[in-house]
Amino acid sequence: MVVVVACTPTTTQNPTNSPEATLLNRLTFGVGPYFPTPNQNRKQFEPLFNALAEQVNFPAEVTVADDWIGISEALRSRTLDVAWLGPWGYILAQHNDPSLQAIATVKYKDQPTYYSVLMARADAPFNTLEEAIAQSQQGTKLRLSLADVGSTSGWLIPQAEFKRRHLDPKAVFDYNEGASHAAQAIAVLSNQVDIASDYDRNLDVLTDEGKIDKSKLKIIWQSNPLPNDPIVVRGSFPETIKTQLQEALVNLPPERAKTLLPKNYTGFVASDGSNYAPIEQAGLLVGKLK
User: Measured between alpha carbons, how far is 187 from 243 in angstroms, rounded to an integer?
Assistant: First the structure.
């Protein structure tokens, strides 16, 4: 992890009246590589975290990491107080440390859910995953690219779908994994692969940035709705501050959300972690959770 996470214990100078917060003098926030560069991530997320800290009368210290695992580990080690995680990263971290708790789920276009997709070029000679599987089994194997194994939509959910179908994608397809989400659609459009995983929100971003022409792609499979990214607090985090942060997130006015969140993200809904059950079930199905 490329960051720098302050490890200095916080002491005294509690700016709230809560006896639970007497050991805090700041709140440490973290986010992983949501955007391609650390500078983009800091520019996008630092104002949000500063605004949240201001709501509970603490100064904020913001960490931007170059991988999601590092952020999860920092949360588990209590180096971070609060983090924006991916759904699968949250489930993995919470599986190892049940004291971690999701307090809110971000909304995208007013919905707390998104979709994993498998896509192909619009002119591909198959229209569904079933047709692609049949073609790959009967002739030259189609090239399938799944994203990084830490990705919810790019790896976990497609793997769970193949498991549900009792298929090994490595046997059916010319299989690769580990690509970044940013590269997946471009790999399909440039004919480097026949099928690739992604998620609907990322296709919107790539389209808005002019990096892809979405009309030249087609979706051959889409998941059920998946919970969007959670805001997670560490174990032993003061209850009073946790409640205040959750209220601040859920009550974020739409106009304020436009200035603090990435494009098309419109606020938060409260979470107790239970809405991430589908992600946990997928992890169990593919054998990544025991």
Answer: 44
